[in-house]
Specification:
313 residues; mainly alpha; DNA-binding transcription factor activity; DNA-binding; zinc
Length: 313
C-alpha cells in the first residue's frame, strides 16, 4: 500500500493506493471535516469526518460517547454477540454496536479526556422536558416509545438466557408472565435514555415510585457478569415448570448462578451479593402494575401483559 500527500492553502489530499490498485482520494478541509462523505466504519452511513480517531457518522459518534461516559453495560439481545450492525439495524442491539465501535478502534480515552458540556448558571425550567427529543409531540408519547423498546429488548434477552433455552414455549411464557417486570427494571437501569430524570420531578406519584426503583438498580452498577447472573436468577422459576425434570434442571442452573454471583461479587465487597439480592426482591409483583401505567397505558389499553409476552419471540 502506498500513500502520497499533496497540500495547498485550503486542503490536504491523501491518496491511498491498495494492493488491488484501487485509489481512494479523501479531501481533508479544515482539519477533520470532509466535503465528500465516506462510509461510517461502524454502520456504513455517511461520515463527514473523524470522531474519536475513526471515520464514523454522527449517530455512532454520539452513541459511543454516551456509552463510554455513562459506563453503560449492554447485553446482546440475541445472546450471540454477532448481530448485524448497519444503517438500518444499528439501533437494534446496543451491545454489538458498541463492540463494533471498539473493533474499529474508536478511542475510549479520547471520550474520557474530553471536556463535557459546561454547566449553565441559569436555572432550568424543567430538566425532564429538556431531554424529550423535538420530534416527539408529547412527553407521554416519548415514555411509551421507550417502554416499548425496553420491553421488547428485555423479553428477547430473556428468551436467549440459559434457563429459557431448555424450556418449551409454554413454560417460557409462564415464567416471563411472572417475571417480565423484573427483567424490565434491570434493563431500564442501563438504558441510554435517562429515565430517572425523565420520570422524576413534577410528575405523578406512580412515576416517582418507578424512577426511584430504576435509580436504586442503576446505583448498583452491575457489571456484565453480574447482570447476566442476576437475570438468570430472576428466570429460574422451577415452581412454574410443567415437568419434574425441567424443575430439577432449573434448580441446578439457579444454584450454580447463585454460587457464581456470590464468588464474583466477593472480590468487590463482602456485602455486595446481599445488596444485589435485596434489589431483586424490591421488584415486587405490585410494581408490575405501576410499570404498566407509566410505560404502556394508554397505548395497550386493556390488552393483558401475558398476551404481549406471548407474541414476542
Amino acid at each position: 500500500m502506498t500513500q502520497s500527500l499533496h497540500s495547498d492553502k485550503h486542503a490536504h489530499i491523501i491518496s491511498v493506493t491498495s494492493d488491488s490498485n484501487m485509489i481512494h482520494t479523501i479531501y481533508f478541509t479544515f482539519g477533520r471535516t470532509l466535503p465528500i462523505p465516506v462510509c461510517c466504519r461502524v454502520c456504513g452511513d455517511k461520515s463527514f469526518g473523524k470522531h474519536y480517531g475513526v471515520f464514523c457518522c454522527d449517530g455512532c459518534s454520539c452513541f459511543f460517547k454516551r456509552s463510554v461516559r455513562r459506563r453503560i453495560v449492554y447485553t446482546c439481545i440475541a445472546g450471540t454477540g454477532q448481530c448485524i450492525v448497519d444503517k438500518a439495524r444499528r439501533n437494534w442491539c446496543p451491545f454489538c454496536r458498541l463492540q463494533k465501535c471498539l473493533r474499529v478502534n474508536m478511542n475510549v480515552t479520547a471520550v474520557q479526556d474530553e471536556r463535557g458540556p459546561r454547566k449553565s448558571k441559569t436555572p432550568k425550567i424543567s430538566e425532564c422536558n429538556n431531554i424529550v427529543p423535538k420530534n416527539w409531540k408529547t412527553r407521554s408519547e416519548y415514555i411509551f416509545e421507550i417502554g416499548a423498546e425496553i420491553f421488547l429488548t428485555s423479553l428477547r434477552q430473556c428468551r436467549f438466557c440459559d434457563p429459557m433455552t431448555i424450556l418449551p414455549k409454554a413454560d417460557q411464557n409462564e415464567i416471563l408472565n411472572r417475571t417480565w417486570h423484573q427483567s424490565f427494571v434491570l434493563l431500564a437501569a442501563f438504558w441510554p435514555t435517562n429515565l430517572i430524570t425523565l420520570l422524576s420531578g413534577p410528575s405523578s406519584r406512580v412515576e416517582n415510585i418507578v424512577a426511584t426503583l430504576i435509580a436504586s438498580h442503576r446505583a448498583m452498577r452491575l457489571d456484565p457478569v453480574e447482570y447476566n447472573l442476576v437475570l438468570t436468577l430472576v428466570l429460574c422459576r422451577p415452581d412454574l415448570c410443567s415437568s419434574v425434570d425441567l424443575r430439577n434442571d432449573l434448580t441446578v442452573i439457579g444454584t450454580n448462578a447463585k454460587d457464581a454471583l456470590m464468588k464474583h461479587t466477593s472480590f468487590k465487597s463482602p456485602t455486595r451479593y446481599f445488596g444485589i439480592l435485596a434489589c431483586i426482591l424490591s421488584i415486587t409483583d405490585d410494581l408490575a402494575g405501576y410499570l404498566k401505567i407509566v410505560f404502556f397505558e394508554p397505548s395497550v389499553r386493556n390488552v393483558p401483559m401475558n398476551h404481549l409476552v406471548s407474541v414476542i419471540t
